[in-house]
Structure prediction request, 417 residues.
Amino acid sequence: MLVDSQTENPLGRAIVERAELLAAHSDQPDALTVTYLTPAHRAAAAQIAAWMREAGLQVQVDAVGNVVGRYASADPEAKTLITGSHFDTVRNGGRFDGRLGILLPIVVVDDLRRRGERLPYHLEIVAFAEEEGVRFKSSFLASSALVGAFDMALLDRIDADGVTMRAAMRAAGLPGDEAAIAALARDPARLAAYIEVHIEQGPVLLDRGLPLGVVTSIAGSVRMSATVTGVASHAGTTPMPMRRDAAAAAAEMILAIERRCSQAPTLVGTVGMVGVPNGAANVVPGRCEFSIDIRAGDDATRDAAVDDVVRELNAIARRRGVALDLAQTMRVPCAPCSPRLMDLLEQCIARAGAAPLRLPSGAGHDAMILQRVTEVCMLFVRCGDGGISHNPRETMTVEDAELAARVFLDFVRTFRP
Ligand SMILES: [Zn+2]
Prediction:
């Protein structure tokens, strides 16, 4: 597809059209689902590689399946600015989540190449093969390889059909061996920075009437699993004061989490899974299990909330005469974005005629992995239709995509390692 500069919003149009074309590849006929190394995933990778080549990038597929396109500087000794995002999706996901951060830079490099413009550093666009963790229940596989943090034990993990990750890699033509993956780790001394463009996946920009946002930090989450144990007993014969109802106790705990996590602007707390194992309509619940996910824009705010939640839940359990077992299943630190890069992005947004808004990212992104080895920043683009994401309704306008591309173009022109 050629970007016709005569039409209105040529870059935005190319981005939105390609997002639609890429969504034709799916594991499921009636929904957009692209999980790691399936035939649809490989077809999407091939399409991205073709667009990269068309744009003048040198393209390679690396040992974890990332499609890496390089726009080389005239100076071979120059450092590398990496940009990118993921092209896998959740089940029944949206067309822009992750993909925007691949398609937008490709369109911008195509524009640079047409003008014969080179950059004083190497620019690499990495289409990350895996971020969402759907097929092998482990997320950020692709970006962790670039920072030397790929967990090799995962190669023997099986998917729902009993296929190991190693076998899936080999079936996709990848080496599927530890040495090749270890070799993907980048030398931090050769990296200039990492910038990721992503759809906001929330309603903040939409509510404020602003097209673009500058991410201040990527929230790290603390996840816990809670098991409440009471006494299962007959629903008809156990008087209310004599019950030790695990589900009623869990309900009070869930409300306590909601109340505590409403007390700071960037703080959020979610109970996304609740279950009464072996429950029945005529049995007072003897056991209730639920998940807890707590995030905030900074670790101190989040950890203070976690401490309070743990204390409050234990107090509820004591008062109700039930046992509570809390196990922490995940703790990821917040990844702050680089102040220098945030300033630069903000200047680019202002030059494009928009008002920049700084906001934290409540969702995890590949940028939080890259932040371990280089300075990072993120450009958020307004999410339409109420800000809904991880949903087929996820959408953005051609005008917003165009503006984001113009800002990205300005950024790569003005960025210096
Ligand atoms: Zn994403």
